[in-house]
Design brief:
The chain contains five helices and three strands, in the order H-H-E-H-E-H-E-H. The protein is mainly alpha-helical. Strands 1-2-3 form a three-stranded parallel β-sheet. Strand 1, helix 3 and strand 2 form a beta-alpha-beta unit. It starts with a helix and ends with a helix.
Length: about 140
């Protein structure tokens, strides 16, 4: 998929206001081998769109278990640095296919470290519920 097509699809989706948050926002960056200019442009565009349409970004804990040879890590720290600069709101998601994964606090601790390190705006469950109910 071309970059422009991907961004157009994200824009159409976020414009609807139907989504509680943007899940896996940095997963697309795993197509890159390094955080180069293209990766940075992708990250900035996603974060700016989410900010414009008031949609929180999800830090996905399941991604922290992945190992991707010769690819950017997921979650991508550079993405979250940019999200902090832009002032995006974030949620933490488990996306767990196994209930026992939810008991693994090391991934939650790592996500909370991202929140602190990059000055991210972590929103609480009640705000997410309120956003959903208002629709």
């Amino acid at each position: 998929m071309k970059f422009e097509t991907y961004i157009n699809e994200i824009t159409k989706a976020l414009k609807t206001g139907l989504f509680t948050y943007f899940a896996h926002p940095d997963l697309i960056l795993t197509i890159y081998e390094s955080f180069n200019n293209k990766a940075e442009k992708t990250a900035r565009t996603i974060c700016e769109l989410a900010k414009k349409y008031n949609t929180p970004l999800e830090i996905n804990l399941n991604g922290m278990t992945w190992t991707l040879p010769n690819r950017l890590t997921y979650p991508c720290e550079d993405f979250w640095r940019i999200a902090g600069e832009i002032g995006n709101e974030v949620v933490i998601g488990y996306d767990s296919h196994y209930p026992e994964f939810c008991r693994e606090t090391k991934y939650l601790d790592k996500a909370l470290d991202f929140v602190e390190k990059y000055n991210l705006k972590l929103i609480k469950k009640d705000k997410i519920i309120q956003k959903f109910i208002k629709k």
